[in-house]
Design goal:
35% strand; two-stranded antiparallel ribbon; 29% helix; alpha+beta; six-stranded mixed beta sheet; 182 residues
Length: 182
C-alpha cells in the first residue's frame, strides 16, 4: 500500500469515528466508543464478521443472507444511493446488486479495525446483466473501487458508510463517458 493510500484510509477512519479518534502526527489514536454494550468484541472478531458478510452476501451472491450479519436498525449510508434504513431494506439492496451482477466479486485489498469500527478497501467487479441503480442491463464488465466503514454492535453490523466510485461503474456500463477516463 502506498503512503498516500495509508493516509487516506487513516483520514477516512478518523472522520467517520469523530469523537472516538484523535489525530496526532498523522496517526489515528482511538479510544473505545461503545460503553453501552458491555465488553466490546475484539477488532479481529469484528473483521471476521465483516469479511464473512462480504464473502457470503457479495461473493456468494446471497443478498438475502445479509440479515444474518446486520442489526434490525441497520443503516447503510452511501453517496450514490443515500441512506437505506433497516436490515430488510439493506438485504433487498444487496439482493438487487448481486442479482444485477450475478458474477460479482469483491476483492479485499486492505482491512483495518479499531474498536468497534472496521474499514475495508476493495475492488468490485463483474458483469452487469440486470438493471442497477437506474442503469439498464449493459451486458458489460464493470469494475469500481470502494472504501467501506462498518460500525459493529455485539458482533453484528449496525451501520455502514460506503464510498464507491460510481462514475467508474457508469463509464463501464456505457451510461456515462467521463472525459478523464480513457
Amino acid at each position: 500500500m502506498k503512503k498516500w493510500q495509508r493516509a487516506a484510509l487513516a483520514t477516512t477512519l478518523a472522520v467517520a469515528t469523530a469523537g472516538g479518534v484523535t489525530m496526532a502526527n498523522g496517526v489515528a489514536n482511538a479510544r473505545e466508543n461503545n460503553p453501552s454494550h458491555g465488553k466490546p468484541a475484539s477488532v479481529e472478531a469484528n473483521k471476521r464478521v465483516v469479511l464473512a458478510f462480504m464473502q457470503d452476501v457479495l461473493n456468494g451472491h446471497n443478498g438475502d443472507h445479509a440479515v444474518r450479519y446486520l442489526t434490525p436498525g441497520m443503516s447503510w449510508h452511501s453517496g450514490t444511493v443515500g441512506t437505506v434504513a433497516g436490515r430488510d431494506n439493506v438485504a433487498d439492496l444487496m439482493t438487487t446488486v448481486v442479482t444485477s451482477i450475478p458474477d460479482l466479486h469483491a476483492e479485499v485489498k486492505d482491512i483495518f479495525g479499531q474498536g468497534n469500527k472496521v474499514v475495508v478497501r476493495l475492488v468490485v467487479s463483474g458483469t452487469q446483466t440486470g438493471p442497477l441503480l437506474g442503469v439498464p442491463a449493459s451486458g458489460r464488465h464493470v469494475q469500481w473501487d470502494a472504501i467501506d466503514l462498518y460500525h459493529l454492535d455485539n458482533g453484528k453490523i449496525s451501520e455502514e458508510w460506503a464510498s464507491e466510485d460510481y462514475v467508474a461503474f457508469l463509464n463501464d456500463t456505457g451510461a456515462y463517458k467521463a472525459p478523464w477516463i480513457a
